[in-house]
Design goal:
By secondary structure, the chain is an alpha/beta fold. It has helices spanning 15-27, 61-67, 83-88, 90-111, 143-162, 185-194, 214-226, 245-256, 279-285, 293-307, and strands spanning 6-10, 31-36, 52-55, 73-76, 115-121, 165-171, 173-175, 199-202, 208-209, 211-213, 233-237, 243-244, 261-264. The protein has two domains: 6-173 and 213-237, 3-Layer(aba) Sandwich (Rossmann fold), CATH 3.40.50.720; 177-210 and 240-303, UDP-galactose 4-epimerase, domain 1. It contains ten helices and 13 strands. The N and C termini lie far apart (38 Å).
């Protein structure tokens, strides 16, 4: 989109942020600034010269406005992540999610920054029946889901009330480089396979997820940031492919070697089936994930090896 020269990425030292910085540097002429409190992200994820790094909390207005100086657009990835942490400390979750999103939006409004992409989650929908789509009535079951839904609502309101170009993206299960610390199936399976440990499946492995490689996700973020006529919209971003955890384990096994698969008792409260309907993103953003699961697993494993 014409007019974008400098982009602020909140949470830019984290898993998705580190990949997004590299994606945008490879495909645009934009200069990049990162705002990160370094609680989960690591400065070492970004090489010198990739971005101007500001260490601070996005929920603090003064910090947000300082980081927005000279910026044309924002990708707001910073968050207090996870359902369980939100149950343990709902107030902390509020300030890390709803509070931080409001702080960034209001700071953008006051600084004249019109373009913002917000990282939301399927947790905003709660225990909805698969496939997940944007016309479902949100019924969050956790403070984390409520915080993401509040962020979506504020994005929509700031688009309608103040003419800002805001877009909310509900990410499916993202995997890829820089995810070693994430307690998700793909990085856990890869780490165990590379370490010669058995792959542990809770339940019978028939539970399903929509696994999207992080480079495809970055493409979706870029398209949301630069698309016309999508202000105030919410999009599901995923592959649209429903993959069982057993198939994921088999894929990791085939790609990385003969690691044993073991089954453990199912965990209570786990969602049985999940995939997203990407037809709206396909229609309005021309978005289509292109990295197959096997290829994505192999790319991620190469990064695990090189970073060990």
């Amino acid at each position: 989109m014409a007019g974008i020269e400098k982009v602020l990425i909140t949470g830019g030292c984290g898993f998705i942020g580190a990949n997004l910085v590299r994606y945008l540097l490879d495909r645009t002429q934009w200069s990049l600034r990162v705002l990160d409190d370094l609680r989960a992200g690591k400065r070492a994820h970004l090489e010198d010269g990739m971005a101007d790094i500001v260490v601070g909390d996005a929920s603090v207005h003064e910090t947000a406005r300082s980081a927005l100086q000279g910026v044309d657009a924002v990708v707001h990835l910073a968050a207090q992540t996870g359902v369980l942490p939100s149950l343990e400390d709902p107030e902390r979750d509020f300030w890390g999610n709803a509070g931080a999103t409001f702080s960034i939006l209001e700071s953008c409004r006051r600084m004249g920054v019109e373009h913002l992409v917000f990282a939301s989650s399927g947790a905003a929908l709660g225990d909805a029946e698969s496939p997940l789509h944007e016309n479902m009535v949100p019924r969050p079951l956790s403070p984390y889901g409520a915080g993401k839904l509040a962020g979506e609502a504020y994005c929509c309101a700031y688009a309608a009330s103040f003419g800002m170009h805001t877009v909310a993206l509900r990410f499916a299960n993202v995997y890829g480089p820089f995810s070693r610390h994430k307690p998700n199936a793909v990085p856990l399976f890869i780490a165990r396979a590379l370490g010669g440990e058995p792959l542990e499946i809770y339940g019978d492995g028939s539970q399903t997820r929509d696994f999207i490689y992080v480079e495809d996700l970055c493409e979706g973020i870029y398209r949301a940031l630069t698309a016309e006529d999508v202000a105030g919209e919410v999009f599901q971003l995923g592959t649209g492919v429903e993959t069982s955890v057993r198939r994921l384990a088999d894929t990791v096994h085939d790609a990385l070697g003969g690691t044993e698969v073991v089954f453990k008792p199912a965990r209570s409260g786990e969602v049985r089936r999940s995939r997203v309907d990407v037809s709206k993103a396909r229609s309005m953003l021309s978005f289509e994930a292109s990295v197959e699961l096997r290829e994505g697993v192999e790319r991620t494993a190469r990064w695990f090896r090189s970073s060990s």
